[in-house]
Design brief:
It catalyses: L-glutamate 5-semialdehyde + NAD(+) + H2O = L-glutamate + NADH + 2 H(+). The protein is an alpha/beta fold and about 500 residues long. It has two domains: about 270 residues, Aldehyde Dehydrogenase, Chain A, domain 1; about 180 residues, Aldehyde Dehydrogenase, Chain A, domain 2. The protein is built from 15 helices and 19 strands. Bound molecules: nicotinamide-adenine-dinucleotide and 5-oxo-L-norvaline. The site of nicotinamide-adenine-dinucleotide has 29 residues, from helix 8 and helix 9.
């Protein structure tokens, strides 16, 4: 990763104190060094982004759409170094890293297509003869894009590409633990044609950057993906401003449940539970946290799931033999271990995989299966490879659905049942943004399963969906009284047939 260090030093992005970024699977490995943005640098970037926005918006949708298309081609051409950096810096397995580059490419191409469609030309609207009416979409101003470490390329690129495509200039704030991959993404977007004053990378502390930038009226909008608690802090900071009301697009956490009834296909359930709860070390906002088993099949399912857990290999994520890598930091690992310790007192640990010498220098958390009595026993999202399981009686589905809803989250929901009526009943009773029937509940595909939730899980916009770019835009109408300049000439050219 020396290349990443050298490249970082060569780039004219803001720079303050350097911090060492170490590999989550082995803290002795320094992946690179990253700068911490200072307050003066953040405000200089905001000045530049603010000054550049009108010209960027005036370029129009077609010209702006060409850029993410070029960025997508560049990303595909650099697949291997991007995968290597994702695996080292974020501790992602190789399949997860390849899928992440793929998703970033998909975001670029999808938003390019939507930009042409929705921002390419004003839409004519109906009106009385003698008057023309048009509706057009424009950037709102400067967007602050704040992203998490768990999809440090795909979510980072998706937010930035969407904000830019809609005609905004962007201050991009990556997570503290994954600035190097963000740097590569920004370098690539600049190379693809985004002017330097239109897109600025601001690595560093979230609370510090938030404290400097959120109170500034020139920040017209924030696209945030991360924890619910941070989204609430950002919301409060924006609400404290006296100026124009800012847009907040927040995509946050979940307490995601899967409901398995007695008609489900057991082998399919096992595959999908393992993939949804433990792969990616459970570090997906979409990951399964609470498995709800109809009591008639619970013992059989638990035996099959614990058996399948034994086949999981934890280790260096750059090895193809590893199914599960580390969690992102020692602080994250400590938090998860504290939860497991609490659960030992109040719940039943059904299975805990062992850790060994190979994990001694990294932040590894062994997959756990923990039986609880009710989802009410969980007070927050535990972002790691911990799966809670509970039993419900066939007659208790409505009460279970009410308990799930009462958590306040609404991100993903899984159903395993061969009864279509049951799946539909769950869907109708849930507020979740993404419901998956008889499959895993992770891995939403851009343009296929637009991703995002409601309630404590987010403000609702769906990344990778047809309406996402609109959330970054202002709508404007343009009405002309053509009667004042000679009448409606279109009437002369209308096809009479
Ligand atoms: N719904 C989704 O699409 C989605 C996707 C990925 C992750 N997530 C959620 O993200 C969380 C994991 O990510 P995380 O640990 O990086 O989340 P986090 O909330 O700790 O941090 C997210 C980002 O916010 C920044 N930040 C922190 N405090 C800030 C402040 N006061 N002002 C401005 N920025 C601030 C951080 O530096 C980081 O860049 C989980 O809860 C997960 O469910 C949600
Ligand atoms: N979109 C991803 C999750 C993003 C959050 O971590 C998925 O569907 O698994």
């Amino acid at each position: 990763m020396a290349g990443a260090v050298a490249a970082l030093d060569a780039q004219p992005v803001v720079r303050g104190h350097d911090v060492a970024i170490t590999a989550p699977h082995d803290r002795r490995i320094i992946v690179g060094r990253a700068p911490e943005t200072t307050q003066a640098q953040a405000l200089t970037a905001l000045d530049a982004a603010s000054a550049a926005q009108a010209a960027w918006d005036a370029l129009g949708g077609h010209a702006r759409a060409d850029i993410p298309l070029r960025a997508a081609d560049l990303m595909e051409a650099r697949l291997e170094p991007l995968v290597a950096l994702l695996s080292r810096e974020a501790g992602k397995t190789l399949p997860d890293s390849v899928a992440e580059v793929r998703e970033a490419v998909d975001f670029c191409r999808y938003y390019a297509a939507r930009t042409r469609e929705d921002f390419g030309a004003p839409k004519p609207l109906p009106g009385p003869t003698g008057e023309t009416n048009q509706l057009s979409l424009h950037g709102k101003g400067v967007f602050l894009c704040i992203s998490p470490w768990n999809f440090p390329l795909a979510i980072f690129t998706g937010q930035v590409a969407a904000a830019l495509a809609a005609g905004n200039t962007v201050l991009a704030k990556p997570a503290e633990t994954t600035p190097l991959i963000a740097f590569e993404a920004v370098r690539l977007l600049h190379e693809a044609g985004v002017p330097k004053d239109v897109l600025h990378l601001l690595p560093g502390s979230g609370p510090a950057l938030g404290g400097w930038l959120l109170p500034d009226d020139r920040v017209a909008g924030v696209a945030f993906t991360g924890s619910t608690v941070t989204a609430q802090r950002i919301n409060r900071a924006l609400a404290n401003r006296d100026g124009p009301i800012a847009t907040l697009i927040a995509e946050t956490g979940g307490q995601n449940a899967m409901i398995v009834d007695s008609t489900a296909l057991p082998e399919q359930v096992v595959d999908d539970v393992i993939a949804s709860a433990f792969l990616s070390a459970g570090q997906r906002c979409s990951a399964l946290r609470v498995l709800c088993l109809q009591d008639d099949i619970a013992d059989t399912m638990i035996a099959m799931i614990t058996g399948a857990m034994d086949t999981l290999v934890l280790g260096d994520p750059s090895k193809l033999s590893s199914d599960i890598g580390p969690v992102i930091s020692q602080a994250a690992a400590d938090g998860l271990m504290a939860h497991i310790a609490r659960m030992r007192e109040t719940a039943r640990i059904l299975k805990a995989l062992p850790l060994g010498e190979a994990h001694a220098h990294g932040s590894f958390v062994a997959p756990h299966l923990i039986e609880i009595g009710s989802i009410k026993e969980l007070t927050r999202e535990e972002f790691g490879p911990i799966l809670h399981v509970l039993r419900y009686p066939a007659s208790g589905l409505d009460a279970l659905l009410a308990d799930i809803r009462a958590t306040g989250y609404g991100l993903t929901m899984g159903v395993h049942s061969r009864l279509e009526g049951t799946a539909r009943r769950v869907f109708a009773a849930s507020r979740c943004g993404n419901t998956y029937i008889n499959r895993s509940m992770t891995g939403a595909v851009v343009g296929v399963q637009p991703f995002g939730g409601a309630g404590l899980s987010g403000t609702g916009p769906k990344a990778g969906g047809p309406y996402y770019l609109h959330r970054f835009a202002s709508e404007r109408t343009y009405t002309v009284n053509v009667a004042a300049t000679g009448g409606n000439t279109q009437l002369f050219t209308m096809n009479e047939g």
